[in-house]
Amino acid sequence: MSPLTLDFLEKLPKTDLHCHLDGSLRLRSILEMAEQQKVALPAADEERLAKLIFPGAECKSLEDYLKAFDITLAVLQEEEALHRAAFELAEDAAQENVRYLEVRYAPVLHLRRGLKLTNVVEAVLSGLREAKRRYGIRYGVILCGIRTISAESSVRMAELCVAYKHKEAFQLILNNNVNCTAHAGEAYGPESIAQAIHYCGAHRIGHGVRLRENGDLLNYVNDHRIPLEVCISSNVQTRAVSDFASHPLPFYYNYGLRVTINTDNRLVTNTTVSKELLLAHQHYGFSLDDLKEVIVAGFKSAFLPYREKADVLKEINKELDQFQLPANGQTAQLPPREVVQGGVTTAGGLSPATESTPSPVMSEPRSSTPVSHG
Hints:
The chain is α/β, with parallel strands linked by helices. It has one domain: TIM Barrel, CATH 3.20.20. Helices cover about 45% and strands about 10% of the residues. It has 16 helices and ten strands. It has an eight-stranded parallel sheet. Strands 8-9 form a two-stranded antiparallel sheet. Helix 6 packs parallel to helix 7, helix 8 runs parallel beside helix 9 and helix 15 runs antiparallel to helix 16. The longest helix has 19 residues. The radius of gyration is 19 Å and the shape is globular.
């Protein structure tokens, strides 16, 4: 098999359906925001801050992994900071040719300095709109409720999601025809996946690494084409799996499940979608054709209206066909790169989409509830 390089994979059009805003800031931006907001951080330079945020081999559990968010959330309590974080996240995604990005966050975690929930949502949407105007990147927003806070707060998130859409929280979401995804099968077993699907009506499952422990449920997910939002590096860091070799991704893919590859947290995990695709190639032998199939699954699984999604898939499949491996065993060659400037396609890339609406997620210790698109 000809080697695939990170540079090559960065050129492929792709999605990122599982990406937390508060886990995907830039180190420099955290320091600058802290200075502007007079927030005291445990480190005053990028090198020391990185050591506190990147879990690496020292991370022992999901709870340990989540400690980094104490730092990022400290500077995400003002509208300007939320706008900047959302814009820079989408900008970073666009630089690796992510064409459709779903950003998830819990508005209730951004109220420490008196912001209203609607202020939080509007600030994030404004940052994403700016990125779309500049780079043509489509986006969705997933508003998350957190199971460890209160049922009432999740209901408030559900109401917010319904408002932005031009039992309790989940039922409200489903009654209003809003898309829903849930963290499940990460820290908890396959029973959490069953609950997410059968009791909460989840349309996608975040992580799902423990789905393999229940064969009947695995076949149900496969038969009903319920997508899995796979985050390889994050799952290793949080100890959802013990190491790369024990990750179920290759089994899921070979068995026929609809798997998508995502970042989870670009900063905290220190990754990109392209790096995650490279891991699938290096650790599990995914070929270029395999990765193309996973990429297409990402677009199929996006919370987009059917007709818009069909148009996107037509464009993406046509573009992916241009990426081929040479027969001589050399490194994969790139087709001419099309460029998006100011939201206008000049040679390649998707034409801009209309803005969408907030959709939902319910999750494990972390997050849960709704999405808005652009």
